[in-house]
Amino acid sequence: MNRYKKVKTASILGIIGNIFLFIIKLIASIMSKSSSMLADTFNSSSDILSSFITYIGNKISSKPKDEDHDLGHGKAEYIFSLIISITMMILVYTMIKTSIKGIINKELLVYSNYLLFVCIVTIVIKFMLYLYTNKIAKEEKNLLIKASSKDHRNDMFVTMINLLSVVLGKYKIYYVDSVVALLISLWILITAIKIFKESYDVLMDKTISEEARKEVLNIIDKHPEIKKIQHFNATPIGYKYQISLTIFVDGNLSTFDSHKIADDLEKEIVKNIDEIYLAVIHVNPY
Predict the structure, then answer these.
(1) How far lies 248's CA from each of 42, 189, 284, in Å?
(2) Res 73: pLDDT
(3) What pTM does this model have?
(4) Domain containing 194: what range?
């Protein structure tokens, strides 16, 4: 199964799982008047949207290059990740308002075993989705599925805190519910900001990592025929980079020999550094 098919499968599973969780959480929040469960329900609605956006973004970013897009459509992955983060921030605003209102008005939680059941089911489903998406994110280095994986992980911990408020609610400790709802909102906000920053960096053509740059320079250092380098630039292309640089070689070499050094170096860099999609090397006489 290739990279895009894996992400497609993960996003579809996310949509199905989150729709199911949204329905049972909505019923639980209405029955119990729980602010934290209502916040969790809002979270699930954003998860449905995020999974759908992941599906669309993955479909667009998987398109090969064409006449209008020489380097393919890889950046769509980051555009849609940016949309996911902004959507999360908008939903968080509503959640924070609801939580603060609950704290001020001292709204009561109506305990029910169904509320407890919903929390446990959510934790189990989210844990399974997290394991699956985290595995794909590590294998494929896909920001969309990485954002999804973090979302599933956060949801799992959020619902654990929610579970605590439910248990305390059974013992008439009600104020914890609205406080937990506020903490959930802040947690989601932090995650949204991180995803936003990561997507923004790529869309603004943030350069290659320092580790990858050092790897390139180490490969070049193994070639004594290369006297020096200049103009090292890197541009993100989807989840990988295109790099360009100028090497200086002996001016007495033939055009064929000097360009063969550059061609061989381009192939060596792309072969050995996974982060690099394309290397373009210009040759000058030293």
Answers:
(1) 58, 49, 5
(2) 66
(3) 0.59
(4) 3-203
